[in-house]
Write a structure and sequence with these properties.
single chain; alpha/beta; Aspartate Aminotransferase, domain 1; Aspartate Aminotransferase, domain 2; seven-stranded mixed beta sheet; four-stranded mixed beta sheet; about 35% helix; globular; binds pyridoxal-5'-phosphate
Length: about 450
Amino acid sequence: MADFHKNILYYDFHWDYPKLESGKGVFLYDKDGNEYLDGSSGAISVSLGHGRADMAQTLYDQALKMAYIHRDIATADVGERAAEHMHRCLGMDRFFPVSGGSEAVEIAGKIARLHFVKQGKFAKRHIIGRWMSYHGYTGNAIAYGGNPARRKEYNAEIYNDYKIAPPYCYRCWFGKDPATCHCECAHALESEIQLRGQETIAAFIFEPVSGTSLGAAVAPAKYYKAIREICTRYDVLMIADEVMCGSGRTGTWNALDHFGVRADIAAYAKSISGGYFPVGVAACTEEVAAPIIEKGIFSPGFTWSGNPIACAIIDKTLSVIEEEDLLANVKKQGDYLKERLLALKDKHACIGDVRGLGLMVGIEFVADRKTKEPFSPHLSFGQRVEEGCRKHRMLTLGTARFNRGVSGDGIMVGPNFEVRGEEVDRIVDTMDTVLSELELEIKL
Ligand SMILES: Cc1ncc(COP(=O)(O)O)c(C=O)c1O
């Protein structure tokens, strides 16, 4: 295990971090050759297996050919190839590569704003988000998000504070059942737009499948069609934050594709680079871009936006996903993973819910399955599951406080797109062992 290095600002100065050195496929290795199963692809980030020579070669080739040009000054074939490829796969029309998910969300918000500014609609400046969501740690991204724990320390700086309830069927905020509800959580958007004044609202931002703030919660089937209709009616743009759930993670190129809906603007990151380079992408439809293009200038961006290495790695990642038919594998192994985790419910009463799409699966733990009473936050149940997995050499992502930021524990599981059936078995078997041990420890 790693000693804390005096020159690093760690995430958790009490955590027992494994010190890793290499990786192959779904496994990571420390200096002594101990093998760790990468059960959550980092933070549901890595889409391709570790240690791929073709990905390393792509980085090398592009770096040697031309590592950097600035997008305000020059353009290159590699950028055009990546954009065309993203258009073919992701279905958006205009792309703006950046260096991560938060940057992609920042640019997505600015596209929405500029779309209206360029038409003289200056009052359309606010973006409505959802409680229990996460869009990144930069200024606007954290403000669009509604994860109380992550916002708490920065509240003084948060100004964009329009939020609606999330589609969280396991603990519906409206006390409804998904089979019989009227999608009250979607219609809350209409009320919020009306109350704030539609002339002031530029966009609605959401994670098509919730990330760590709600542990892969999936909206009711009719939710996004209702959201689409409301947004169109009020001239409010739909921004899909596909950073975690997009680029194939759920078995379709966009998570929103499962719902038969197209967003106006989207943000991608994580899986879109395979995990081999820090990349994000903001994207929009031609209709959204049109007023900006007509006026001639799209001003926002960063020094590294659209750099050739990022574009080469995006192009290559999409090719690998297509050539190796990885979307089909995500679907197959994702279904199998969920089915096997659901079967664990019979053995472990602490499993309240298993949810998600494709290889983005969340487990929510409860003290009482019948009443859905969460564990006391003092138990840090989710964190202890994560710790237990690590002791058994499996890396997963513990999450907490699904229940309005107060309580609720979970874990996210999501291996890379190349995962095989026997590796899924190992994930589930390890989880089974860890839960049995924890149940004994805290005398459930
Ligand atoms: C849905 C979502 N949006 C945005 C982000 C921020 O991305 P990044 O950490 O690359 O800035 C994340 C990160 O986990 C995310 O899950």
